[in-house]
Amino acid sequence: MTTAFDPIVLGGKRLANRVVMAPMTRSRAFGPGAEPTELMATYYAQRAGAGLIVTEGIQPSLLGQGYPDTPGLHTPGQVDAWRTVTEAVHREGGVIFAQLMHTGRIGHPSLLPDGLVPVAPSAVAAKGQVFTHEGPKDFVTPKQLSEAEIRQTIADFAAAAHNAIEAGFDGVEIHGANGYLIHQFLAPNTNQRTDAWGGDTEGRIRFAVKVVTAVAEAIGSHRVGLRISPGNPYNDMSEDNLGEVYGALLDRLADLDLAYLHLMEGPDRDLTVRLRKAWAGTFVLNPFTYPDATGPDALVLIEDGSADAIAYGALFLANPDLPRRLAAGGPFNTPDPATFYGGDHRGYTDYPTLTA
């Protein structure tokens, strides 16, 4: 029987265990350069006992930023600063992937250089507000991406992935979940296009397929993971035909032989089972446990074959040595939702969390 503490090969790396640190936005890239700080190097190195660390969301371009003080991977300074983080993690024996996150319509002009506004598949504003340096602000109507801008965005993802490898990352995870740009292309309420990038299922999955393919070509498919969250309404998302859309997406990606698929599960376990069966590669599961943080009982999902690895969010914040504690059966520090940025199951209720 496979357990969470058995090794697994992922992205050409032998992981010491199957406990994954989920991506969680921390907003600690202070300063105009959106560069990682020493605090971030310490934070990730403390958690190097994870089989795999997936970083907070990293914008692949200026337009990809949707929250204050989030880091980028599109300038030489950012690459150099991230190298400090990856070296710190590697010194502790860890493996770390950079999560590339373009927030699309989720953001605000005040977070972008003068004259720029958030972009999206269609000019449809999200309901709600985003945090800025001036406090909460209503989401604005985004600019609809043109054909040329879509292709430039795909190129931006590929360039950021190349920068990630230059910075010492072991691979990248493409963020296709939680109401951000790739997810916006997948969902009918945010993608109202009638051209080749919208409309039917094939059109709506096209952007995701092109981004993943471009990144795989840039750095090698064995270094690329994809995160999805079918049906997650966070960031004012509404989806239908989940089995059809996500089944088609996985089918189109099957031949790429990616490092892994990372599913942020919703309340429909039957859909999880279907997607697990449809994905022949490594399957990382962030199980639906709302309103609680994912706990040690989730490890049984590896033992029964539901997943190859389990991603932990909140519990990893409160317990930097989480794999050791899981192996020992505890004790565990309790996550504080009042200070938790990010989470395992954003959007399914009005639980007061923010981001990635």
Short description, anyone?
The chain is α/β, with parallel strands linked by helices. Helices cover 30% and strands 16% of the residues. The strands form four sheets. It has an eight-stranded parallel beta barrel with strand order 3-4-5-10-11-12-13-14. Strands 1-2 form a two-stranded antiparallel ribbon.
Mean pLDDT: 94
Major pleated sheet: 8 strands, parallel, barrel
Strand content: 15-25%
Structural class assignment: alpha/beta
Query: What is the helical fraction, as a range of percent?
Result: 25-40%
Distance between the termini: 33 Å
Shape assignment:
globular
The counted number of beta strands is: 14
**With helices defined by DSSP (H or I, 4 residues minimum), what is the helix count?**
10
User: Which value, in Å, is the CA radius of gyration?
Assistant: 19 Å
> What strand line-up does the widest sheet have?
3-4-5-10-11-12-13-14
pLDDT < 50 runs, ≥5 residues: 341-356
Question: How would you describe this structure to a colleague?
Answer:
With 356 residues, the protein is an alpha/beta fold. Helices cover 30% and strands 16% of the residues. The chain contains 10 helices and 14 strands. The strands form 4 sheets. Strands 3-4-5-10-11-12-13-14 form an 8-stranded parallel barrel. β13, α8 and β14 form a beta-alpha-beta unit. α3 (147-166) packs parallel to α5 and α6 packs parallel to α7. The two termini are 33 Å apart. The model is unreliable at 341-356 (pLDDT under 50).
